[in-house]
Amino acid sequence: MHISLKDSLARLNVPDLKDLLSYLPDVDKLGRKDELIERLVATLLGSGLKAIWSGLDETQQAAVAEAVDDPLGEYSEQRFRAKYQCVPSFRVAGAKSYGYSGSKCSALRLFIHYDHEDRSYFVPAELRARLQAFVPPPAPLELESKETLADDAGRVLRLTEREALQEVVVMLRTIEQARIQVSEKTALPGTAALRVLSEKLAGGDYYSWFEKKNKWDQEIGPIKAFAWPLLLQAGGLALRAGGRLALSPAGVKALSAPPADVVRGLWRKWMKTTLFDEFSRVEAIKGQNAKGRVMTAVAPRRAAIEEALHECPVGRWIAFDDFSRFMRATGLDFAVTQNAWKLYLGERQYGSLGYEGSGGWNILQDRYILALLFEYAATLGIVDVAYIAPERARADYHDLWGSDDLAFLSRYDGLSNFRLTPLGAYVLGLASDYRPVAIASTVVLSVLPSLLVNVVRGELAAEETLLLENWAVPVQAGSWRLDREKALSAIEKGYAIAELQGFLESRDDMPLPPTVETFIRQCERNGKALRMVGSAVLIECRDSETAEAIAAHKETGALCLRAGAKALVVRLDNVDKFRERVRLLGFGLVS
User: Where are the domains of the chain?
Assistant: First the structure.
């Protein structure tokens, strides 16, 4: 609780009190300290308060309005700077002062006081009550947004909603096939697993994956492919078993659930999980795992960002910097670290982020927001993203010690804009149900018996191009050919060819040619002709007689299949049982 107006003034020295009295008309500036304080209190709580307030400049009046409107009567420089992109003057440089030359208290100090114990600026309660009678409330901050983004040759627009609804099913199917290896200790996928997952992504990962040549090189690496196994584990749909992921009972049920509901559940679970701290992916900032408690709890960070997402209009592009500024201006702030001195770039002593100006909001909080939006919200289709290459996309870290060799501070630095999707509105609880937005299109197609799909009129939307790329190969500008290999690959990934059929039928005035209908029917039938039910181990026996004895015995025959004269195949999840049964027959199994 802040102190009274009189007590706050009593903490000032006499020269400062005289500076403040100079802003009051017809008030004597001579006398003892207690007399000066009484004159200030009488005037500020008297009838002339409004006239004194009117003498403030526009920025100072705005600062008073913000403090008066605050529930605790406090003024926050961080919030004010974020909202107005300037700060008010508390001292007048160069003005003649009663105390010393070069600086004088401005009239703003009559209204906004400083509590040295709490290290906070505030308006004393009795003064605030008087000001509320005439000071207009501050204008609410609006989050700036745009319907469209200007063309930029170097920028990629990624529409994530359809991708996420497809990929969540594909990822569950991939885990069902027991192909994803993760660390038992960290739950993180290995390089081989990331490559498998990258191949399954609808439109690929955000950036091409190039392995670094030197160990000190920076690597962007996978983003979506990295996020999916963590999301599924945190959501309780995948479990670690023997270094591999397996579907949990909830994961099995999710295969037949509406994908939008699955995505919503994954986001809600991610908001609370302690499985992973997204900031750990900002590898350039060292010391995160130092002794003692260095990083803050992740749930409050995510909650602040999610609350800010609730203020985003659906379907309109928002600049990331505007979003970050909005969070600070509205008090949706959070801490990333308990001790910035333990975080550093390059070298622990000289590169510490504890030095003034080193570990600011733009370095810590902005990088965390970027990571959560780009790697998790976008992967789940909550936001569409617009981005460029991260190299030198943001220059705000270049003055930090130890940053000379860094092309980027985080792999997410290239994110420039994002847009809340209808799926995102459903996931965040802003919409009661989810209805996929129909692709707005004026394109007219001609589907030929030769399996060619030609654009007759109009231009394919980005979503339409993405859909066609799953099933057809480009022949020339405006022309595609349905391709059996691509179609089978799409079906293997979990895509429904019925979506292609509906797309072609809705954009061609003529019925689909019989050859195209046959193509669709055969692909649908043959695309699921084989089903991978699990991984297996190939076991070589010493001779064909041993293989025959084991395959024919009632204890082991049900656990293996012959694979050639001397080889047996055993499902991975049956290896331990097979080993035990083989021992009963008098044989040993070595690796």
Answer: 5-131, 156-427, 444-526, 536-584
